[in-house]
């Protein structure tokens, strides 16, 4: 049993999943994949997981900063600007946890605005403390960049209140993903579906409603199946 699955029963430990964006949720399922974990530990297997480079599976989405090479939203680039009135780039003024990662072709800046993980690329000649501008490809459909630009503004200019997702409650899909993740951990830890039902829905409800053809059992079966599907490659659908 890995460290991920030892403490799968306290539901409060999974509440952070409600506030993850899609790429971070995808990471939570991928990092539980036994083959991915074996490869990280030194297996000779060479598989395409959709990452620009491997990330440590012991790190959950609050700590890890995986860079996906599939299903990314349009990316805004930060470039130097000659107008002295432009905002100056200040890495240390960005609130919360942030990271700079070079994956061979691009330097990526990652941080959090609201509950969204923001990913930007930096021009090679960007300098801390100097004016900058946001750049997107000429001819690009501006509507596709609206969300990316809003989250970038939220990260770098403190306008998170203007971002759409910062105002919304977690969607229903987030609750499903949270429960599927917990059900998956229970399964990988050797728990039965009834054990999982008790943890997710309580002893009393299970005692009253659990039987081979019950809706409750079907719901647990779905969560277990959904968790496995996402772990075994379905996480890529979240990236799209």
UniProtKB/TrEMBL annotation:
It comes from the Bacteria. Residues 75-110 form the DUF7011 domain. Residues 152-239 form the T6SS Transcription factor RovC-like DNA binding domain. Residues 8-44 form the Transcriptional regulator-like domain. This is DUF2285 domain-containing protein. It comes from Pseudoxanthomonas sacheonensis.
């Amino acid at each position: 049993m890995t460290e991920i699955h030892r403490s799968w029963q306290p539901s409060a430990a999974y509440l952070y999943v409600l506030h993850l964006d899609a790429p971070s949720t995808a990471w939570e399922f991928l990092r539980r994949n036994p083959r991915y974990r074996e490869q990280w530990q030194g297996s000779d297997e060479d598989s395409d997981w959709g990452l620009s480079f491997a990330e440590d599976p012991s790190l959950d989405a609050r700590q890890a900063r995986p860079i996906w090479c599939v299903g990314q939203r349009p990316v805004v680039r930060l470039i130097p600007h000659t107008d002295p009135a432009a905002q100056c780039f200040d890495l240390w003024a960005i609130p919360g946890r942030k990271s700079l990662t070079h994956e061979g072709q691009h330097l990526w800046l990652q941080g959090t605005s609201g509950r969204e993980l923001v990913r930007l690329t930096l021009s090679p000649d960007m300098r801390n403390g100097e004016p900058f501008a946001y750049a997107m490809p000429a001819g690009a459909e501006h509507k596709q960049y609206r969300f990316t630009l809003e989250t970038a503004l939220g990260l770098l200019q403190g306008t998170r209140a203007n971002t759409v997702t910062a105002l919304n409650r977690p969607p229903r899909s987030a609750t499903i993903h949270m429960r599927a993740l917990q059900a998956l951990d229970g399964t990988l830890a050797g728990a039965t579906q009834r054990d999982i039902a008790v943890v997710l829905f309580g002893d009393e409800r299970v005692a009253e409603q659990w039987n081979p053809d019950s809706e409750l059992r079907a719901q647990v079966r779905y969560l277990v199946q959904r968790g496995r599907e996402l772990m075994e490659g379905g996480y890529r659908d979240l990236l799209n």
